[in-house]
Write a structure and sequence with these properties.
Strand order of the largest sheet: 2-1-6-5-4-3
Helix content: 25-40%
Largest sheet: 6 strands, mixed
Number of strands: 6
Order of helices and strands: HHEEHEEEEH
Number of helices: 4
Shape: globular
Distance between the termini: 52 Å
């Protein structure tokens, strides 16, 4: 149990993060991050939500922009492991690229570091080739025009 002067534990912070994420409480998610953060979601540079971020404001941009590109179908947390300030969350997800309807399905591991009740480090590892291929998939737009294909995709 915490008092007003004691910050939440790593486990409490991670559980709050996952709960708020599940409820779509973006403002609540963002408040859990430190003002300066070491964030990386590695993958193809053409995929707009991947990459590094360093501030809480950039984290807010990520959580605001991501749902404009991707429709979540399933996000399942299988395990959460905590060791001091470090946490690892593993699971699986299924979602679709909104512009094309292409499916993405992958396992994931999320590594978090929590300092004084704030998330200071964030790493999200997934099958980045599956994500890049789904992003590269073309689809006919409303006007019947083919959307541009990701140039780095291979089959």
């Amino acid at each position: 149990m915490q008092t007003e002067s004691t910050p939440p534990s790593t486990r409490e912070t991670v559980e709050r993060f996952l709960d708020r994420l599940a409820w779509g409480d973006i403002d609540g998610v963002v408040t859990l991050f430190a003002e300066r953060v070491d964030w990386d979601v590695p993958g193809a540079v053409e995929v707009p939500w991947l990459g590094t971020r360093t501030t809480r404001s950039e984290v807010a941009d990520y959580f605001t922009a991501h749902p404009t590109h991707v429709a979540k179908e399933e996000f399942v947390v299988e395990r959460t492991l905590v060791d001091g300030a470090e946490a690892a969350v593993s699971g699986r997800f299924r979602s679709r690229v909104i512009r094309s309807g292409a499916a993405m399905e992958s396992w994931f591991v999320l590594q978090l570091t929590v300092t004084a009740g704030e998330i200071t480090r964030y790493r999200f590892y997934e099958d980045s080739l599956t994500v890049a291929r789904a992003w590269a998939t073309t689809a006919k737009g409303a006007a019947g025009q083919t959307q541009e294909t990701h140039k780095g995709a291979t089959d």
